[in-house]
Amino acid sequence: MPRTFAYTRVSTINQTTVNQIQEIEAAGFKVEPRRIVTETVSGSVATAQRRGFCRLLDRLETGDVLIVTKLDRLGRNAMDVGSTVAKLAEIGVRVHCLALGGVDLASSTGKLTMNVINAVAEFERDLLIERTQAGLNRAKAEGKTLGRPAILTNDQRLLVAQRLKEGTSVSSLAREFKTSRQTIMRARDATCR
Q: What is the pTM of this model?
């Protein structure tokens, strides 16, 4: 007889998983309290790095059912969710996502849904990259300087190079110019070219 588990996750200690558990119960799933895994961890953390989820994986067996309220409970992005669902399917665990109408993500309908979500996520990533590149190109064309402002002016860099040739140490110049040793060494390397 298949066992039913629930995985609930919140990002901060100020949040609670009570609403997720109530959603699962309202959808008609009866999950024993000992089979509800609750975790407080940022959604940016990959599923494989979540302690609670890893413990849950150790408990799951072929034929078990895992319930989540939303896809983002299962991973940090569409690819992470996809690999998590694939891993669960390999061991014979069915994953039901309430936000997708309770569809079993390992079924053919679930796989189609996951593929569509992955395609949309990839499309959004590509659009973001295109917009970023367009913005950078426009800024360059307008003559704007990109990146962080230089810590040392051109005159200061030349002075650093001259003082290094005279034998002043990198550390003393870093203290004098109120900057890091790395900045002084970069100034030295830039003038040696």
A: 0.62
